[in-house]
Hints:
This protein is mainly beta.
Amino acid sequence: xxxxxxxxxxxxxxxxxxxxxxxxxxxxxxxxxxxxxxxxxxxxxxxxxxxxxxxxxxxxxxxxxxxxxxxxxxxxxxxxxxxxxxxxxxxxxxxxxxxxxxxxxxxxxxxxxxxxxxxxxxxxxxxxxxxxxxxxxxxxxxxxxxxxxxxxxxxxxxxxxxxxxxxxxxxxxxxxxxxxxxxxxxxxxxxxxxxxx
Length: 197
């Protein structure tokens, strides 16, 4: 199969995987440069698991959405985490009267690197399947951005992030997408031995 015959979704996935490798490679390089202070070699694998989840909201003149996204992550170092999100999203499209609603579900991999004192960068690929007018459609997103995380106790933390969806296209009239804007705002909680993440 030639590169020219690949569908845009396949190209998006290839682009994401390449960027994720670059992101993780640069992050691991930075983490290794910090030496033992960033190492988790003495920490059992079970204590490197982070559970969490977040909510996302979007409101616009043509569309509103509410998203719930539980996640599980694994710390490769004290500053680098990879994991998987699951996603459910409720959409309300206001272009028509009465408005049209849909339910989306999906998920995908992510990577997060702690840059400095609670400030992190985040890369994520997301696949969503959503219903519209009794048919189901696919939507893929490559999101990159950052945020901050604040500890709440010893094993929990609150986070807030702003991501930019590089796959976002403005819909044409009578077209509907799960997101109303290329900007995705999320807030949530992380739980685990290293709740600071």
